Amino acid sequence: LSNRLDGFTESIIRKMTRVARQYDAINLSQGFPDFDPPRELTEELRKVADEGPHQYEITWGSELFREKLALKQTKRMGIPVDPATNIVVTCGSTEAMMAAMMTVCNPGDKVIVFSPFYENYTADAILTGVTPIYVPLAPPEFEYDPATLRHAFEQGVKAIVLCNPSNPTGKVFTLEELEEIARLAVEFDTFVITDEVYEHIVYEPHVHTYMASLPGMFERTLSCSSLSKTYSITGWRLGYIIGPAKVIETCRKVHDFLTVGAAAPLQKAAVKGLEMADAYYEELTGIYERKRTLFLDGLDRIGLKYYKPQGAYYVLVDISEFGEPDDYKFCEWLAKEIGVAAVPGSSFFREDVRQYIRFHFAKKEETLTEALKRLEKLA
Ligand code: GLN
């Protein structure tokens, strides 16, 4: 078998979903909702079953989908997005990130990745023949050290991967941080590959700024995102890359040969989501705000220590006081004996850090309440 695969393990996030099923545990590991998408989308999906399309769409995304996405993102990002030249529709942001990296990097290149990080980035880098240079984010605010970041840029990197709002920390990068990263990207002439799938899940007073919207950054940013989290359709696998026409032209080639295209019927049905009024996004934020309060209040009652997320729907919980040095063993025990599945924190860290587990709270309030009831045994 290929030696390339030695550089990373299977996805621990996806593995924990299997562990949750095995022990019939409440799955707070792999982050996806247990509630339905908006009715507009499911009703349209029923209609599409009768009316189609059921065949291939244009490889880089249906015209209607790109048009509606361009309208929405032009408004949200505050920069003009041209549906004809600035968009590739992908199979989830998972493909978007991989295609983006393959588009801008040669084998042997280096990319900066903040640690902790969403585990796909290492796999993307290794499969692309790229070496990740990790820059630590230090709790409690998960700030980076500016000198370390500059030093990483000095090593001749091709791109920096920026997950904002961030998985697993829930960090929302401040405008000052983004401006600093942008200055470095310009100074060292690098690309920024963003993962902004939690763009609509941001808690006050924090504000998410799109890297591509900063002066001069559109030209060097590949903004990856997806509809999974925003419309609760993780299984539809609809993502996209927005970027400058010249780069997107190459990206489309990569995407075409990787997957030919995202599912045509699902693109059609998802247009109903892209057409939602602003109120939908405010409502979504409100829903997650309530889930966050419910879950974090529960953790407080139990006496668990955690870092309060500023965005996204994850929380890193500190398990050091339980005296189990192996976070994998702890998660296995938690799923089996307590009936709640979490992700061992070390799968997100480059450094040898084993004192955290990650819960997600994208679940119905009753699911979260039941999970907290089970977790009370930890008090
Ligand atoms: N982003 C989700 C998580 O971190 C998982 C997404 C996936 O498995 N593709 O749990």
From TrEMBL:
Its EC number is 2.6.1.-. The keyword Transferase applies. Its cofactor is pyridoxal 5'-phosphate. The keyword rRNA processing does not apply. Signal peptide: none annotated. Pfam families: Aminotran_1_2. InterPro entries: Aminotransferase_I/II_large, Kynurenine-oxoglutarate_AT, Lectin_legB_Mn/Ca_BS, NHTrfase_class1_PyrdxlP-BS, PyrdxlP-dep_Trfase, PyrdxlP-dep_Trfase_major, PyrdxlP-dep_Trfase_small. It is an enzyme of class 2 (transferase). Belongs to the class-I pyridoxal-phosphate-dependent aminotransferase family. This is Aminotransferase. It comes from Paenibacillus forsythiae.
